[in-house]
Design goal:
Blueprint: H1 3-13, H2 19-38, H3 43-50, H4 53-72, H5 75-88, H6 90-127, H7 136-184, H8 188-192
Helix pairs in contact: 1-2, 1-4, 2-3, 4-5, 5-7, 6-7
Length: 193
């Protein structure tokens, strides 16, 4: 594979990363070709040593997504980290999805329930005193405040649990990738023995 073919495939694989990040990565891998040429190696030898540019791009995208999640921890960064890591372990995802979807689904359902309880508490706080229920106006106000507090607690707890689950997913994917990486790479060591 020539330098242009390798770099073209690598750049196509990096589409979606911030332009500056993709340019830095491309420049770094371009430097590998320059160093190889200075050492008297052909472009094909350097490209073979670097590996498959498509797989390399997936790995770099996944690592960039995980680093972004470590730095920003917002919904966009979480999605980027999870989708980047999904690209690395497509087969593993088939095993992980039956576990992950119900857990994330339950957390999202509880988060939405917390929002609903908070809204119901606000409604009870505003409208409750006008209905003259048992305990009077004070009981209606306290009931509304209590429901709003419960809703806030549920929202905060589920937001924290969501963050922990995303951290655990990123940790698992990084660990899994480190364990499987030697098995996925071509066996250069065996050919040298």
């Amino acid at each position: 594979m020539t330098r242009d073919e390798f770099m073209g495939r690598l750049r196509r694989g990096l589409v979606g990363l911030p332009t500056r990040t993709a340019a830095e990565i491309a420049a770094d891998y371009g430097q590998h070709f320059d160093d190889g040429a200075a050492d008297g190696r052909t472009e094909a030898e350097v490209a073979e040593a670097l590996g498959d540019p498509d797989r390399l791009a997936r790995e770099l995208r996944a690592e960039a997504g995980a680093r972004r999640w470590d730095q920003e921890q917002n919904p966009a960064a979480a999605a980027g980290a999870i989708f980047g890591l999904i690209g690395l372990g497509a087969i593993d995802i088939l095993i992980l999805l039956p576990i992950v979807f119900p857990v994330f689904g339950a957390v999202i359902a509880m988060l939405m329930t917390g929002v609903g309880v908070f809204i119901a508490g606000g409604f009870a706080l505003v409208v409750g005193p006008f209905f003259g229920g048992p305990g009077g106006v004070l009981a209606a106000i306290l009931f509304g405040i209590g429901l709003m507090g419960l809703g806030l607690f549920m929202i905060g707890l589920m937001a924290l649990l969501t963050k922990w689950l995303i951290d655990a997913t990123v940790w698992y994917a990084r660990l899994h990738y480190r364990v499987l990486k030697p098995a996925l790479e071509p066996s250069n060591n065996r050919s040298q023995d």
